[in-house]
Amino acid sequence: MTRNTGRNGSRREDQSPAVGYWNEREAAQEKAAYEEAMEYKPHNKDTEAALLGALMIDNRLVETIGTRLKAEHFFEAAHGRIFERIVSLVAKGKKVSPITLAPYFDGEPIQFYDDDAQSFDPNGYRTYLAQLASVGGAGMLGARDFANQISELAMMRELVHVARRVGEAAKHTDTEIDPMKVVQVAEAELTEITAAYAVDAATTSASLAQAWDETFEEIQDIANGKPAVGFQIEGYEDWNEIVGRIEPGDLIYLGGRSSMGKTAVSCAVAIGAAQAGHATEYLSLESKRRIITRRMIANKIYEQGVTSSYSALCDGKLTTMDRIALKHARADVETYPLNIDDPSSMNVEEVVGFIRRRQRAWAKKGQELKLVVIDYLGRFQTAKRIDTPSERVSYISNKLKQAAADTGVAMVVLVQLSRAVEQREDKHPVLSDLLMSGSLEADADTVVFLYRDEYYLQRSQPKPTDEKKYSDWQDDMTASRDRLEIYSTKRREGALTKRVGYFFTNEQAVRSSGFYRADLFAAQNDPFGGDGLPV
User: Is residue 532 in some structural domain?
Assistant: First the structure.
């Protein structure tokens, strides 16, 4: 017999290395424990009975427990049928008691599930309804707690089912092992459970007077120095003035035609959020991580008259000042809570799972994930088959809105605009330019557009022989050079706002409207000769 090392390091001669247990007895115990876990069905029959009895004694309790509890959440099918009938009759304004309920179940045997066997009550429901009323007093004071426990136990049973189904998925994967397929099955199952057991609006409602007091208390706290809800972006004042404070669950669409600077602005927003100390994920479905990182580097180190072009940065043709800037910028970003993710593809149904995994990862570091930046909406795939492009965009937008709401994480999502913009004389984007679907406007908390007149002027250069037109064109080019218009066209909180900042295309750097004023001030007060960098 081949020798094998036991769990305590001792050598054993009764076991093959391939088995991994001390002996067959331990292997059997492990197997039995696994099978027991897979067959585990958490439930509390007494809680179910007490709640049903309480509902029959005081029908008003139906409103107290809200609509979160469903008939299918009861472990005992008979209890679920009784609950469903009680809710239905109360909704119709009828009085519910054991006597009024009994006729709905006459002639039916009642069935219960014990741990090891099935039992039948030959007297049917009539006797059992009276028994329920006799134990209902225990549930009258804690009806909502009882309902929550029943719902939570149902969720636990669903989780056991998920474990079983994941095991089946793992067993039936293709001959080539692909654990990500199994992970996707699990995440899809868990997302369905989350949606099925979501807290309904009735459990979160409040009277106007109560909401008034809570809101006024929040206002007073802010007046007394407590930070307002949400966060802002450091170093990008134009964005803050246009968007306001970004609150948990906000969905912000950032739109513009190609070459307007969407990716550069999104990088600036991500860096600014992280610079302010807010954990941020940059999810790039469009470009690889190295490309996004280069853009972030270029944006971070740019100072007027200091850096080389973005292409020089890509080619490694760095000036001395570039290297100095890179050294000091690298020291800054060491503490930035910013991750860059570049999956080769992603279904929009996976977004919730992705965010929850990243939330757990940041929580282990003692931080709360605040923002996810996504480049861009059109790159999402869907597990669900969708027939038309318009329906696809609507479906993706709805899933992103749901993901933001479910996780409490704000999103900035880049979107392309329709080509209709190019057909107009005034090419400033408007809400109707959102690609293929009005649902984007409906789902968004804020819609921000970018526009650069310089981009279109460059493509309309007149012939130098026409001196008047050419001279006017040169004047227009000078006035628009590096100018970036950024403005909101929808904003749930606050007025629509427009700012004209800067997008230095050769350097892929974004700056706010006060950039040159700040740059001049820094030069006048810089002990290092105006370059803003120690040497």
Answer: no
Q: What's the token pair of residue 175?
A: 């001959």
Is residue 94 assigned to a domain?
A: yes
Contact 270, 336 (CB under 8 A): no
CATH number at residue 453: 3.40.50.300
Do 130 and 74 sit in the same domain of this protein? yes
DSSP state of 13: S
Looking at residue 26, its pLDDT comes to: 64
My answer on whether 517 and 383 are in the same domain is: yes
Rounded CA-CA distance 397/395 in Å is: 5
Does any domain span residue 9?
no
Choose the final residue of a domain: 205, 229, 259: 205
- What's the pLDDT score for residue 274? 94
Question: Is residue 142 domain-shared with residue 277, that is, in the same domain?
Answer: no
In this structure, is residue 285 part of a structural domain? yes
The residue-averaged pLDDT of 6-18 equals: 41
At residue 435, the pLDDT reads 72
Q: Within this chain, do residues 187 and 251 fall inside the same structural domain, yes or no?
A: no
Query: Do residues 177 and 256 both lie within one domain?
Result: no
Report the percent of the chain where pLDDT is more than 90: 26
Q: What string of H, E and C letters represents the secondary structure of 201-253? A: HHHHCCCHHHHHHHHHHHHHHHHCCCCCCCECCCCCHHHHHHHCCECCCCEEE
Q: Cα 237 vs. chain centroid, distance in angstroms?
A: 25
Answering whether pTM is above 0.85, one says no
How many domains is the chain built from?
2
42: confidence class by pLDDT, cuts 50, 70, 90: confident
Determine the residue type at 180: M
User: Is the bond leading into 376 cis (omega within 30 degrees of zero)?
Assistant: yes
Chosen domain end from 205, 228, 247: 205
Q: Residue type at 455? A: Y
Q: CB count, 10 Å around CB of 171? A: 8
3-class secondary structure per residue, 32-92: HHHHHHHHCCCCCHHHHHHHHHHHHHCCCHHHHCCCCCCHHHCCCHHHHHHHHHHHHHHHC
Give residue-wise pLDDT tens across range 284-327.
Answer: 999 899 999 989 988 888 875 566 678 878 888 888 888 888 88
Q: Which domain holds residue 293?
A: 237-524
CA gap 153, 146 in Å, rounded: 11
Report pLDDT for 254.
Answer: 96
Q: Alpha-carbon distance 503 to 364, whole Å?
A: 37
The answer to whether the beta carbons of residues 54 and 143 sit under 8 Å apart is yes
Q: Does residue 395 sit in helix, strand or coil?
A: helix
